[in-house]
Amino acid sequence: MSPAGFSPPPYPYDRLEPAKAAAAAHEGGLVDLSIGTPNDPPPDAVVAALASSGTERGYPPSIGSKGFREAAAGWMGRRFGVEVGADHVAACVGTKELVANVVGWLRLRTPDRDTVLCPSVAYPTYEMGAILAGCRPLAVDDLAAVSDDDARRALCLWVNSPANPTGALADLGAAAAWGRAHGVPVLSDECYAEFTWDGLPHTILEHGLEGVLAVHSLSKRSNLAGLRAGFYAGDPELVHYLSEVRKHAGFMVPGPVQAAAIVALDDDVHVDEQRERYLERLWFFADVLRAEGAKVDLPGGSFYLWAEAPGGDAWGFTDDLAARGGVLVSPGDLYGPNGAGHVRVALVQPMDRLRLVAERLG
Questions:
Q1: Domains and CATH numbers, the chain
Q2: Has residue 1 got a pLDDT over 80?
Q3: Residue 328 near residue 33, CB atoms below 8 Å
Q4: Rounded CA Rg of the chain
Q5: H/E/C letters for each residue in 149-210?
């Protein structure tokens, strides 16, 4: 008998099916706050660009069109005050595929390193990307505590600010400095940067391009999760290496999607409007959760509430909210063992649906 190969674990959100069924049984249906899937409409001009680009016939450049890369660089200049040349920007098909695959590509480049450092409570794909590459994921919340051996073995360091699921803001300058001191690329997932509430939004590229990548998506910023448009920018050699590997593998953002993304990246008004929507929902639903006995503060960023469940029983709280309120939330251990005792609430539904939950809970 041959040795057992890799068997994928259950997808985290599949564990919510019983609670989902209970919530859906309510009159008026399920109010799904478990996944950060935008429900608000994208700008009309973006949708129009998707239908009128005339780029459907040909293969798009894997790295992204010149217009797309210039739009991404221009947005970073406006939002963060950083100057990044379009040659140091490349497209990705949304950012999840990049997060899941980049470790394997880095391992081909540096085969003597096998460890991926990532936060202990985090987007599950950081850990899964390491596993899929045959690497060792290592939870790290304090870079000063990383041993010399783990630093030597480190293939990359993931940081996420504002963070999913907690909404915390990271010290990106410290992460960049640690990576450079140890020869470890730092991959900074910044897809929630537009929804920074404590101060101005930041990118790791404010601290220079050497040894770092900033990863961005239009899924959250512009309510375009269905288009799968993202980009990465930073260290010139690293951007070039990854874009060449991806070219060989055939990763391409469709031309019409790139055309729509250009329009979205060039417009900031719709983002300001979306910020107002999310802030209203965060404030409102924090009070709903507090009335149910949860402890919760407004996040430093993102559109998530990270709430301490009553009595520390996150799964029990999830089931109770589903049964009484018809609302689905995510228990914190879906994001790592250290998340146990909390729930994540994605404020992606409109206010009328949130008010319906409040009424049901009484």
A1: 12-41+269-361 (3.90.1150.10), 44-266 (3.40.640.10)
A2: no
A3: yes
A4: 21
A5: HHHHHEEEEEEECCCCCCCCCCCHHHHHHHHHHHCCCEEEECCCHHHECCCCCCCHHHHCCC
Spatial separation of the C-alpha atoms in residues 186 and 205, rounded to whole Å: 11
pLDDT, tens digit (0-9, with 9 covering 90-100), for 22-78: 999 999 999 999 999 999 999 999 999 999 999 999 999 999 999 999 999 999 999
Instruction: Name the DSSP letter for residue 93.
Output: S
The closest alpha carbon to 44, from 338, 267, 202, 317, belongs to: 267
Distance CA 40, CA 30 (A): 17
Q: State pLDDT tens for residues 295-340.
A: 999 999 999 999 999 999 999 999 999 999 999 999 999 999 999 9
Q: Which helix (H) or strand (E) holds 341?
A: none
Cβ atoms within 10 Å, residue 62: 20
